[in-house]
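Sorry to interrupt, but I need a hand with the structure work. It will help me judge whether the discrete encoding reads sensibly. Write everything out right here, beneath this request:
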Amino acid sequence: MILVGLTGGIGSGKTTVSAALAQRGAVIVDADAIVHELQAPGTPVLAAMVKEFGEEILDSSGQLNRAAVAHRVFGDQAALARLGEIVHPPVREEIFARVLAEADTDHVVVLDIPLLTESGWEGLIGTIVVDLDPAVAVERLVAHRGFSREDAEARIARQATREERREKAAIVIDNSGTLVDLEPQIEKAWEWIESHRN
């Protein structure tokens, strides 16, 4: 198994790069997708969140209302910390399980984790960072993902800085241009990954 980290700030285009690596044969372990799975109705994580924050974090069908959770915890450090205590341990456990399942294979396994710079991970050949000017990321989040400017800026402010991510990167992919500009950079990153095969 070749284990690679993939990270980038919110709105950086990390998902696009992740999808392109998957097309080349990588197994993607997507932390955000795992969070969504573990917060589905009927799960212990969602039950613990409702116990902590109340029924108002659910929509009318019993699904988690992520905007309501964001509204509840962002700006409240104690609430945000409690949310982390509920969500992070089972997510990390599930990520470990999925990586372990690939341990004896010759697969490229990409750990797609937004907070990789902040949390760290052992055993990586290195980390690919999808890089974008935070101001451009804010514009993209507002234009394409329905964020308010205030919410987008607040989320970016809570993440590692652009400089901190770049400092820990083995490969930096500049996503300030178009998809056409992105493709050769992804191919170069894939060649770097493949160069680690024994």
About this structure: Residues 40 and 46 are 7 Å apart (CA to CA). The first helix runs from residue 14 to 23. The first strand starts at residue 2 and ends at 8.
